[in-house]
Amino acid sequence: MACRCLLSRILNYHSAPNTILTLTCQRRLQVALLEGTRKYSAAKSTTSDGPDTYFITTPIFYVNSVPHIGHLHTTVLSDCLARWHRIKGKHVIFSTGTDEHGMKIQKAALDHNQQPADYCDKISAEFQRLFTLTNISHTNFIRTTEQRHIETVQHFWQRIYDNGYIYKGSYSGWYCTSDEAFLTDDRVDEITSKDGKLIKVSADSGHPVEWMEEENYMFKLSAFKQQLLDWLRKDVIKPAKFQAVVNQWVEQSLQDLSVSRTTKRLTWGIPVPGDPTQTIYVWLDALVNYLTVGGYPRMGYTWPAQCHVVGKDILKFHAVYWPAFLMAADLPVPDEIMCHSHWLVDGVKMSKSLGNVVNPFDDVNKYTVDGLRYFLLREAVPHSDANYTTDKVTNILNSELANTLGNLLGRCTSMAVNPNQHFPEFDEELFKSTSSDADQEMMKSLHKLPGFVDDCYTEYNIYKGIDAVMNQLRLTNTFLEQQKPWELCKHNERARQLGNVLHLTMETLRVCAILLQPITPDMACRILDALNIPKDSRMFVDSKCHFQGGTSLAATRSGPAFKRITHRSKASV
Ligand code: MSP
Question: Domain Methionyl-tRNA synthetase anticodon-binding: where (predicted)?
Fold first, then answer.
């Protein structure tokens, strides 16, 4: 009943004059609402929150244009964390999706002569195709045009309104449609455009802004300064560099925020409950996606999220506005926000006008899924921008995955040195009596590796964890060079020594492959399969060295761990 009421309210709002929502869109919305109603009544309550649940989110992506490498990076990073917590035994909820309302999308659809709903369907499908292709293990893909989300946003709005934090006011100031952001005077710069005109742009993004004067609903952001500071004191924003930035934003004045737009300008959005003349501000709408995924406000919904992964350009929305909205609705705030920097291409910002936007579909073809995932996670550091160049990708993949990792696997499993295809047992006494200081150091660092990598991944320093794994593999390659198994195998009396060399190499590969599963899932699986490690022995607890061995290798193998990249950049051909 409540749903039917909501359905007719929404349809009435969107039938207002001057709306660009056509009959087709209305019908779609109606179908979505009815389908949603069915799902709603059939739904059981969600898994309730608990210490064993890890709820992680990516930002939801604007559907104004197709995905680029920056979008893939944010998602791969979140996927890596989701996979890590899974192999640590958590029940993981991992959400991603598309942000489909607002001026930016309304305008993009118009520019392409398409209805917004059709345009959103098309671009959202591209994001879903990319995430399937790149092995993203999300449990939820949310679209903000879905009925379940529309309901959640309206419920959430009503709750904040009933709590007295939304009031009718008027906004006059700058608005940047590209960022969907309201800006104060000090965040606006004046620049000369290519055609010689003076234009105002956002100081943060460089995108044009326009002056706006409208009757709007305002949110009492200023009321939450102290609560926000208390929350921030728990060091919730990672890395620390960004925590300091957020502290400063909150310490400086927090002005009330406009949270609606008049339907005269914006119809492609969710109507303000009870006021057909206003559409909810797209950022409020978008942020609530996280609650929708958690099942809010149904019984047993899961909240708060443990981690929101965001790029630095959208930190303020997540670390200031979002917690304040949640506080206003009497809901818990997220545990942590992980903020990353951006990808530059050949040292410059990616932009359509420069024609340097990296298409992730093309680069998956060039470098493979695992190759691209590895490069993005290994090369990006959270605190500063990273640089994407074709030569760098090729060199890193060939030297680290094909050489360091791939060769090590090839060397210990080849028929030449390992004709019986064994993962031999380890002879500890022999190792003690024959090992050099360097060998013992290698052994010590292998023991420490899982704990160290755990700390790195948990602290969002993925690149450091990968670096430690690669160092271990390099040490083992050096060990192999010194031990020369290709010589040992020619002498029967050296069989025990050969067994130890092969064992240590394989044990290293086993440990490293378990730790690399979140980074390069298919490649790690190929290595573990080749070593014949059972599928149920690939959790984080299994990465502890146990020196078992005494098993056979897989009877068949699916090629090398990683094939060399032979593609060359335009500059180097
Ligand atoms: N729709 C909003 C997010 C709403 S979340 C409630 C949005 N979308 S976006 O498509 O513009 O950006 C999504 C993510 O991609 C952001 O985290 C952003 O930082 C990231 N990236 C966009 N360009 C990027 C790079 N060049 N490099 C790395 N990530 C970048 O903002």
Answer: 436-536
